[in-house]
Design goal:
84 residues, mainly beta, Alpha-D-Glucose-1,6-Bisphosphate, Chain A, domain 4, 5-stranded antiparallel sheet
Length: 84
């Protein structure tokens, strides 16, 4: 999980996870595929900037707790150029 109270990020949780560019500076664009962007199980496609070892990332929102400033998502697919 990513704690938004840590030194890594500042400010409130974006009201919709579709606004990934607010807290992920390497994001080129973000589109919600399933859900409304405000609730768990929302699925989004994130396109990242050129030069990273990925082109797209499919992410599913697992936790959104605005009171505790916690946001968690799972990467469920996408076009990655990473090897194990």
């Amino acid at each position: 999980m990513l704690d938004l109270n840590s030194n890594q990020l500042s400010g409130p949780i974006p009201p919709r996870i579709v606004r990934a560019t607010t807290y992920k500076h390497f994001v080129k664009s973000c589109h919600v595929l399933v859900g409304d962007g405000n609730n768990i199980r929302t699925l989004r496609e994130v396109r990242v900037v050129f030069g990273l070892p990925a082109a797209t990332s499919m992410e599913c929102l697992e936790v959104l707790d605005e009171e505790s400033h916690v946001l968690s998502f799972q990467i469920v697919g996408g076009e990655h150029r990473l090897t194990n």
